Amino acid sequence: xxxxxxxxxxxxxxxxxxxxxxxxxxxxxxxxxxxxxxxxxxxxxxxxxxxxxxxxxxxxxxxxxxxxxxxxxxxxxxxxxxxxxxxxxxxxxxxxxxxxxxxxxxxxxxxxxxxxxxxxxxxxxxxxxxxxx
Length: 133
Known about the structure:
This protein has helices at residues 2-8, 56-62, 67-79, 105-110, 117-123, and strands at residues 11-15, 39-43. With 133 residues, it is α+β, with helices and mostly antiparallel strands. It has a domain at 1-55. It has a two-stranded parallel sheet. The longest helix is centred in the middle third of the chain and has 13 residues, at 67-79.
């Protein structure tokens, strides 16, 4: 952190006072005059969807795959498409579930949990859920 501070300063650090929470004041960065012309160091997880309200379109623009990467992904997915899917339309859904460190008692005491099957079934009705033990 010392080398980062030396390179970025003057910088303004913003962060969350606690995890697993939504901090409304974090969404008002555009109204802060103290960050103009300075580097901004952001610390925290910012897991709430509320942080993206009003900037969804810009995020989708900045987080899109480059065209050559998108083409490579599409080509790969076409190659591994099950033969039963070739005739009709379909949707692929990928779900990443973080489990390893969340199995620890300390994480459970803090409030973290691993979603159970009904959670994923409600995400997309009709989705095929593949579980790995």
